[in-house]
Specification:
The protein is of the alpha/beta class. The protein has a single domain, classed as Nucleotidyltransferase, domain 5 (2-Layer Sandwich), CATH 3.30.420.10. It is 43% helix and 17% strand. The chain contains seven helices and five strands, in the order ββαβααββαααα. Strands 3-2-1-4-5 form a five-stranded mixed sheet. A hairpin with an 8-residue loop joins strand 1 and strand 2. Helix 1 packs across helix 4 and helix 2 packs across helix 3. It is globular.
Amino acid sequence: MLIAGVDEVGRGPLAGPVVAAAVILNSTAPISGLDDSKKLTEKRRISLDVQIRQHALCFAIGYADVGEIDQLNILHATMLAMQRAVTGLDVVPDKVYVDGNRIPELPCDAEAIVGGDGTVAEISAASIIAKVYRDSLMKDLHEQYPHYGFASNKGYPSKQHRDALLVHGVTPLHRRSFAPVRAALEG
């Protein structure tokens, strides 16, 4: 039976997309050390990301951009990103395990698993792929918008990021439906 794991990263930031990944691992090429991406060092995540990309049966990344987040709300945008990741897989899984307590609309059987990113290898792998991808994207965006500290805060509401919003204003990367961004726009 082919199992896909799905997880997302980036629900809480004030800027950037919400990113999801779906991964079907290869049972003949196990990867040791998989865990919730938040429990791993950046160096370990990057190392595992390379191994997953090399050895997984397949993986796909889906995201919802800032406009979709503002239009749909973060929950629905997250479900959309997960749906895009699963439908982007080259192989149709028999079942999908989704981290959390909600399941997006999918073309196959699915089950939500709270804390799955720390207990289900496929979800752990998806968590790592999504986090490394989004972190890299935010580091790239830091080059365009250095005042906000995206390379270090990844768009989350750090003090530097919140202060930069007040001093430098809102960028096209910012989620206008999020309270601190809305406050900066009104301020």
